[in-house]
Batch of 4 targets.
Target 1
Amino acid sequence: MSKQTLSYQEAFVETTRLLEGPGALLNGVRDDGAVNTMTIGWATFGVIWGRPIAVVFVRPSRYTYEFMEATPDFTINVLPDTMGKALAFCGTRSGRDVDKFAECDLTLVPGREIRTPSIEEASIVYECRTLHHNDLDPGSLDPSVRESYYPSGDFHRCYYGEIVACYGSLG
């Protein structure tokens, strides 16, 4: 599938629609070349430090966390509506136990600008270079958010990635 270069602004509407529904896949790569993916439903896009930025959230307990820590880049892979089963599978199974790519017939392809590969079947891909990360401060969270999303205290790390490439096929 040939993908054209997109501005992140034109891809944002479709990305937001899918994040509110089935989600997207976040890929990370380790130093040994192993790749893992996980379903994300939370991300934000905008401009920080005069650069286009995507912020993603990963809990330290997730297998993907070690991949995010190992390499300073990641891809956000927005799958079409028809791939809801793959998104559900990747959101409920750990890469520690199963090869999600093989189980879901997902094809890894090299990144255009970064080391982390993307997923060929994605309708939109964001390649991001990590500029910063920080841990959520439990004391600063609204108590209702803390109670609803962090009852066990497994707070997310936030990764701020400069969008260095965006491509896909819209419509």
Note: The helical segments are 8-20, 63-70, 84-92, 100-103, 143-149.
Target 2
Amino acid sequence: MKRMASEEILRHLDEMFPDAHCELDHKNAYEMAVAVILSAQTTDASVNRVTKDLFQKYPDVYALAGADLKDIEACIASLGLYRNKAKAIRGFAQGVAEKHNGEIPATMEELTALPGVGRKCANVILSECWGIPALAVDTHVSRIAKRLRLAFQNDTPDIIERKLKKLFPKERWIRTHHQMIFFGRYRCHARNPECAGCPFADFCREKKKTLEEGK
């Protein structure tokens, strides 16, 4: 089955989700970075429910860095893995305070050297906080890339990131990242994707598998 051209994929994504954007509530780079760390294996909506009070209590890096771990845990207890996440965001804040004078770094190397920040988180921080072209691969982006035959089923997030960056123009990385997330979040779900009327249905691995299973 022939793969859809990258230009056609971008055109369809533009038509479906012209206003795709980051759905984590934040007012500055500090809030964005903390929210991204908290978003691992949970929904943006769940993160937004806890960060409002969290940021009121700890309005900057220094406040969070000096916070009692139990108090942080209490603020985010509704999130999965909240104990590990509490350690991660406090460790991140301490690293920023001690090594970067309280300023969120703007390079991949500096960000990934901080507690709680992997490559995906760093890519989101770079793009959302500093407008640096980046393409973060989360579960939605990974799923869509594999279903649309832009990556193999056993590709790691790092491999998928490299493939997508080669496929799409650099000036489109940030927008395409958000559009793929919206597509995965609101239409091409992990279970029961909405295939009817989907412009990618003829190319999609998931659609083909569904048809074959129905024979």
Note: The first helix runs from residue 6 to 16.
Target 3
Amino acid sequence: MRKPRSMAALEDFGRVRLSPSFFMRDFLYSEIAGFHGVPNLPDDPGLAIAAGGQLCETLLEPLQAAFGRLAIRSGFRSRLVTEFGHRRRECGSVRVNAAYHVWDLRDADGCMGGGATVVVPWFADRHAAGADWRALAWWIHDHLPYAHLQFFPKLAAFNIQWHERPARRIDSFIKPRGCLTRPGMANHAGSHADWYAGFPA
């Protein structure tokens, strides 16, 4: 598939179904792109579709099946949008986001990946009432083949990444800040079910 260069082509690209519940259009909106008028279009649509399909099938679909509708805060970001946002200190560099938010660019090791920033409304309400963000982090850790998670204070939103070589690391900007777990840490293996008692099966 070629890079969309017309409105009709963009509409067709947006209609590409990535999984039973998600279409490419769900991931193309960007506040940075919309506000500043920077096109958010992939240079390699085929790679973006492949990475986005894996993200949706392996992570977002089961997450939505367990907790109900997800809100997508940020999904695909083009290299152009990422470079623009990075210059304004509104997002990370293209190098950092390759195979993460920049779905259509392999990382330095040649690996494919894709990520999105999502809110789980079911959990956001509970977090606002005092629930610990680590409860959801450990649920995902125990149930889904994620590559990286990173939690944010507003709405308990988090980045979730699919990657060909998953790092299985969780970081957070919510207290306690920093790295919750990564391979080699004592807490990485085993069940963490005590953290998420009462969560959906």
Note: The longest helix spans residues 45-67.
Target 4
Amino acid sequence: MKFKRLLCALLLGTVLFSAGCGSGGKSAVQTTEETPTPTPKKEGEIVDMQKTEKPLEAEKDYDNVIGTRTSTSTLLLITNQTGGEIATIYIRPTNKNAMTDDWGDELVKGSFTLKNGDVAAFYYEKDKKDAAGELITKYDIRVGYTDIYKNECFFRELPLTVMTELRLCMDGTGQSAIPYARYKTASSTTDYSTLEDVKKRIGLTGIKILSPTPTPLATPTPVAAATDTPTPEPLPTEVPVYQPTQDQGAAAASAYIGQSLDSLMAGLGSPSGSEYLDEPETGRTGYHYYSTFTVSTIVDSAGNEIVAGVW
């Protein structure tokens, strides 16, 4: 019994000794919190978050815009000085050998009209090439008007790629007016005009009125009288000279020289017959037969038919 009590006392002492280890009661266990190391971002991750599209060049916002504005496009300002209000605009590369007269898409699409003096901003790609891989340097422009009775105008073989400013103009008024362009380039201060080139292209340079020219009668030389030859009777003192007078219809038609055939027909009516020939000097030439006179015309590559002569 004593042995059991002694054994219990020993066990109790051992427990108490273990509980009092590390004076101060509870054992202070210190834990060290590690500072998290920032995970390095993959290269390009931050850049992608801040990436923005390359802004276009700072340019004025124009009210009237045709073409597509991109970071590589070229801007050309086109001013309407034709005297009419433009409603449609077509622009295409010049191609004299084209088998069809295809103008592509109309560019305004009803978004605006250009009154006389208004400006349109045209954006186009300057480095376009044709099917043969050649750089395109010349373009044609076709415009139509809000006035349905006003003819469309054509401006051909324009060197748009060197232009900084383009004005669509009109020489004259009414049906006889001739559309042409004026422009400036970055390399010169000269104001260029296509008027003379247009006149040459449609055959309006060096045209003469074809009308009969009277040939004066030659005065006969008297023959010396021979022996036993009867003396000729004296000639009349005054020799009548043929003076042709131009038919009134032909005179009226002559006033249309340089104008379109449509305008002549609107004023004088349609001819009784017509035919067309390919002349070596003037190209395609039309002959229109009225009852007392004939009208000749010259047809350019665009189909414009201009009165060239009357006889």
Note: Helices lie at 2-19, 45-50, 195-201, 248-254, 261-268.
